[in-house]
Specification:
Strand content: 15-25%
Distance between the termini: 19 Å
Radius of gyration: 21 Å
Number of strands: 15
Largest sheet: 8 strands, parallel, barrel
Order of helices and strands: EHHHEHEEHEEEEEEHEHHEHEHHEHHEH
Shape: globular
Helix content: 25-40%
Amino acid sequence: QWIKKARIYELFPRAYNTAGRRSASGFKSPSSPDETLFFKDFKISDFKVIKRMGFDTVWPMGILPIGKRGQTGTGGGSPYSISDHSTINPDLGSEEDFREFVRKAHRVGLRVIVDFVANHTSLDSKLLEENPNYFISFQYGGECPHNGYFDYFWHGRKYCVHHGGFEYAGGISTWIDTAQINYSNQALRNRLTEIVKGWVEKFDVDGFRVDMAYLDLNNVFARTWQRNMPREEFYREMIREVKNAKPSTGFIAEAYAYQEDLSACGFDAIYSKYETGRLEGQTGWYETTAAGNSHEIMSSINRNAFLAWQRGGAGSVVFVGNHDEPAPEKIYGKRLGAALMLSMLMPTAVMLSLIHISEPTRPLYISYAVFCLK
């Protein structure tokens, strides 16, 4: 039950200003040259600052190795174009460094959740190297189609592999730095279940935030990729296996549709961002508070309160910003303090990404957050 009421502190290790945080809190930056990797460098004192603000869970996002082929952007590639789902990005530290990071968090009473990027990998991932049949692909001797495919050579044979994608406007929109995993393949399902369980067994993490979770439900995947699916839902199989290894493991779904289906698969909490398929209209917390529609905000409060009250099924995760959204100041303007206050009073899981909060307004908005959390 812990994840249904978690207060989650999201941080982005690649951009997290540890030295600035310590300076602001009266801490000194490390001087030893071997303390430059993020997970090695993060101290008990850094966790205590987070704990004192009222958080009980830390989500270090974007900690998996990033692919090199087809890398986009100028900041080192997308942290969701993953080359290896089973380990830590070496730029942030070693596996032992991350194990110690989790131990330190646990010592001060914080839980740690990590990403499981379920829908896709990078163009040069270990899973693709292991077997291109784990992906939406076909063998072909000629030129691969230009509508979403890239070429990949494996054991002397050429494969055309589809980029990761999702349904959009009657077609498929793609992320060009990713490869689409094939959930109609039971061997792939078994392999990913083994990998996710490995994070619990190797690192003792407490939970997972599953990226774009709804894309890989049987009904959505079958319609998008025109595949015949196994009878069982992948998530139901995977969550069951992981919770057999560690029953307290929590699962959060990033989802903008099919919330009931994900709940039935065993997810503990689901993003409350965008949910329009209900009789009362839009009830997603982020979209309703961003729009400022009082009727929709009332409906969202009722919906989230119900999800927190119910004995079974998934709860919700409310937020006013995260790494996928514009800075909250731009969205809410002068209403940001009120949005934060109301979010913190919700009887659900609450997620904050304080990296977005600009320096001039930081004391005011953090004071709202700390007051409500306490």
